[in-house]
Amino acid sequence: MSDAIKQEPITVQMIDGSVAIPHGLKLISLHSPDEGVVPNRRMIAHVEGWTPDKEYAPDSFDLYELSAARAFVQEGKLNGMECNQDWWDDFGQPTREAKLFNGEWDIRDRA
Predict the structure, then answer these.
(1) Looking at the predicted structure, is the pLDDT value of residue 54 above 90?
(2) What is the mean pLDDT of residues 48-66?
(3) Confidence at residue 39, expressed as pLDDT on a 0 to 100 scale
(4) What does the pLDDT read at residue 107?
(5) Whole-prediction pTM value?
(6) b/e code 70-102 from CB counts within 10 Å (16+ = b)
(7) Residue 42 and residue 83: Cα distance in Å, rounded?
(8) Going by C-beta distance under 8 Å and a sequence separation of 6 or more, which residues neighbour residue 53?
């Protein structure tokens, strides 16, 4: 049997239509617990490589294209009410990186 992969859920932001994941982590899946298309809806990423004692640069991110991922809807019930969540996976490798300088994003293609 293969070893289990530890995934950690973290709240992420979108930058220029891409999912921003702290540099050094690997994006496994993403979901939105909020229904509907909301410009600033909450996004939860499940990542590999997170450790509580590791320091991450708060201004350095890998960007994964949301449009390149496989999208699906998970239907269910929460407190007896219908609850649908949007999910994405199969992101591949990050295509760009972003660094925050003086409140402005510097976005570059990955080499």
Answers:
(1) no
(2) 82
(3) 56
(4) 94
(5) 0.80
(6) eeeeeeeeeeeeeeebbbbeebeebebbbeeee
(7) 15
(8) none
Whether residue 89 contacts residue 26, with contact meaning beta carbons closer than 8 Å, is answered with no
**Number of residues written out for the chain:** 111
Decide the pairing of beta strands 18-22 and 60-65. antiparallel
Rg from Cα positions in the chain: 15
Phi and psi, residue 67, nearest 5°: -70, -20
Which two structure tokens, joined as six digits, stand for 91? 């992101």
Separation between Cα atoms, residue 27 and residue 12, nearest integer Å: 11
Pairing of strands 60-65, 70-78: unpaired
User: What is the per-residue pLDDT for 1?
Assistant: 59
- Count CB neighbours of 20 within 10 A: 25
Nearest Cα to 42, choosing from 74, 12, 21?
12
